[in-house]
Amino acid sequence: MGLNTVATYVFWNFHEPEPDKWDFTxxxxxxxxxxxxxxxxxxxxxxxxxxxxxxxxxxxxxxxxQNIKGMEIRRDNPEFLARTKSYLERLYKEVGSLQCTKGGxxxxxxxxxxxxxxxxxxxxxxxxxxQAYNAKIKQQLIDAGFNVPMFTSDGSWLFEGGATxxxxxxxxxxxxxxxxxxxxxxxxxxxxxxxxxEFYPGWLSHWAEDFPQISASSIxxxxxxxxxxxxxxxxxxxHGGTNFGFSSGANYDKxxxxxPDLTSYDYDAPISEAGWETPKYDSLRNVIKKYxxxxxxxxxxxxxxxxxxxxxxxxxxxxxxxxxxxxxxxAEEPLTFEQLNQGYGYVLYTRHFNQxxxxxxxxxxxxxxxxxxxxxxxxxxxxxxxxxxSLEIDVPFNSTVQILVENMGRINYGSEIVHNNKGxxxxxxxxxxxxxxNWKMYSLPMAEAPDADKLGVANSASATTxxxxxxxVYSGKFTLDKVGDTFIDMADWGKGIIFxxxxxxxxxxxxxxxxxxxxxGVWLRKGENKIVVFEQLNLKPQKExxxxxxxxxxxxxSELN
Length: 561
Fold this sequence. Notes:
Blueprint: E1 5-9, H1 12-15, H2 30-39, E2 43-47, H3 78-95, E3 106-110, H4 115-121, H5 127-144, E4 150-154, H6 159-162, E5 168-171, H7 177-187, E6 195-199, H8 216-228, E7 232-235, E8 250-251, E9 259-260, H9 279-289, E10 311-312, E11 315-318, H10 319-324, E12 329-331, E13 346-353, E14 357-362, E15 366-367, E16 369-374, E17 377-383, E18 390-395, E19 399-406, E20 423-424, E21 429-430, E22 433-434, E23 439-444, H11 452-455, E24 457-458, H12 461-466, E25 472-480, E26 486-489, E27 495-500, E28 503-509, E29 516-519, E30 527-535, E31 544-545, E32 547-548
Parallel strand pairs: 1-2, 2-3, 3-4, 4-5, 6-7
Antiparallel strand pairs: 8-9, 10-31, 11-24, 11-25, 12-23, 13-19, 13-23, 14-18, 14-21, 15-20, 16-17, 16-19, 21-22, 25-30, 26-29, 26-32, 27-28, 27-30
Helix pairs in contact: 3-5, 8-9
GO molecular function, one term: beta-galactosidase activity
Protein name: Beta-galactosidase
Family: Belongs to the glycosyl hydrolase 35 family.
């Protein structure tokens, strides 16, 4: 495209999944990624947070921070700052030698991220305390050894809370060149340089909402304005990519208590989710080529795609039965994911009733999505996304209520980020009566694919009829003589996750707008491949899966349970 720098977030929770257990291997090898950027003659801007937002689970924070006594995230709190210090020091060991001051490609490091927004949202905290915290994060980066220029990024009207002395303030989403220079001068001793650290060519997308689109011509015109006025800009995102596994976060507003982000992070970006050029890419490239003094290379050919017409699903497994064979945690009341020392996935909550009870089941503390059963028979769905926190229930004598709860991603932006426990976080009531005692919790983190081959049965008409409306695991194998990128078509399914060769490729949900899931060809193999689908709703029996060469990201359906 003609760009010369890669800006990359660093996700703290990606690298410290458990306290003091670090992982920079394989896909998490940040240093190798930065070295490759350098080999491609690209500079690197590092955005380590510790908060990054990025539509990523919990904004990059490890979920287990919430279990630390006295912890208050994102403020001048000793417990929190002790953990951020540990993270930034460990990060420096990985990438400190790759700074331009040591001959590497890293030219800038960001302090915190969009902190001015948080200051505006948390007026209950004095501005002086906010500013003290912001300065301490910058100092922790310096103390760790980072010695390249530092910067902050916020909306231009939020610099009072977000800027910190000694760091260049940059303005996210700022189209007005005069205003950009005015506010940067105000907070940076009357001098530049001038930069838009996030220039948006597209926008984030949520389940059950329209997929946003921004025209290529408007983005090209704004790019030319920046170039004509010597304004640096970072295209966020130039390539959206994919929220694989449980990495997608969520937003919050009053209409929907949670707005979970799609698995796809295509973002309507110039480079598509699968790495293809788009008309928007061409428009931007044509503008940039007019202004840069270095040669702009040819556009690479798109990665080859394949289509698999039919993947047979020959085994099925009853997930409730599978879960209830595990040893449960017993408690007087439902426990949260965090109390169960579980970060992601699902928890099955069960409660046996010796006496019959009927009326309205209320779970106002549902986080985030639940299917409710009585003795394995589906009663209905509760959904934080639609503010559906109650349903009518009839529990006969000597019966068990089963509530399968899904964490759909922790909130990653705004003041609600401090309220991010998952599972059932408040009392459960039936007919106005709080249900206490004898709760059992079965953890289903789905860190690995359930082994339906070993524990399941043949996918026969009798098996799938029996399991209709029940949570079910399907599995199958398929053989390839060549590999390539592809998209699994899930438009005919309900809600769940998919594992391909043991890798969780993310969530699907019938409501859309995303109806396909991207599978990079590097995760497929010549010869035998294995696929496992955990289908939460199982509205109808399934026998096969098919893939397509083209993604479907804009097919919004009406709400279906």
